[in-house]
Structure formats: structure tokens, C-alpha cells
User: Fold this.
Amino acid sequence: MTGTAIDLAALATVALAALLGASSGALRQVLQLVAVVAGVLAARHLAAPVAAGLGSFASAPVARAIAPAFLFLGVSALVSLVGGALLRGTAASRIVHGPADRGLGSLLGGVKGLLGAWVALSLLLLVASVAPREWERDVRESQLVRLAARYDLVARVAPEGARTLERFRTRGEGEPGRK
Assistant:
């Protein structure tokens, strides 16, 4: 995949998110944001006890790796479902899908898509650092990847994970598997 294709895919993601935001409306976009925040908070604060509970079903490293993902997905889905049911059962459901709600939903959806693309490009940059040189070169040709590198969201949010990957990358220099 060339740098231009990566840029076009990122822009298409933002445009699609804006269209989906317009179709669902601003209230549903805000509800999804609340669900994601609740999922992140649950994953950050409850991962250790859930991992301990999962320890009887999986090894400790696997349990520690999957506990935050299970918590994030489960809590996000639960909050989204409960919030959607509450939204449908209240007077707020009548204002959904008006022109203002759709316009603001498009804006919020586009911002959500932009944030998702930023995270994806930051992760792509990290993964490219341990990929074959040819693939890394293609990724670094992308103008949006270079912009994401300048303002690396992953390194800001999870600096320890980024440092671990960087140590792995520098340890892999010169090994036969790396071209």
C-alpha cells in the first residue's frame, strides 16, 4: 500500500464517519461518546480484578491482555444499548433527525472519524517500525502518517507501550527476518 493510498483511506474514513454521524444524529453521537468514555474508564480501573478472575480460564499474560478489551467492549456496548433505549423512550427522540441534529451529528461523526484515523495512523507508524523496510518506507511516504508522527497520539496516551515497541524495534535491527 503506497503513502497516497493510506492518505485516501484515512480521508475516506473521516468522510464515512461524517455521513454516518449525519444519519444517526448528534444525540446518538453524544451517546456513543459517553459509551466509549465509560468503556475506557472501566478498562483502566477494573482491568486488574477482571484479569485475576480470568486467570482461572487463561494464563496470566493472556488474561491481562484481554481483560481491558473485554471491559471496554462490554461496558461500551451496555451503555450504548441502555442509552439508546432511554433515548427512544423519552421526548428527546422527537428532536432526533431534525436538520440541526443531523448537521451537528455530521460534525461530531467527522471529529470521531478524525480521531479514529489519527489513532490508526499512529498505530500504523508504530507497527511499520518493526515491519520490513519496504513496507516501512511506503508507510512513511504518507503525508498523514508524517502528520500523525509529529503529534503521536499513541505515544502520548500509552507512552510505556510505545517505548516497549521501540525497544523491540531497536533490538530487531540487523536480524535476518528484517529486510
Remarks:
- Residues 174-179 have pLDDT under 50 and may be disordered.
- The helical segments are 3-24, 26-54, 60-88, 99-128, 133-140, 143-150, 153-157, 159-171.
- DSSP finds eight helices and no strands in the chain.
- The two ends are 17 Å apart (CA to CA).
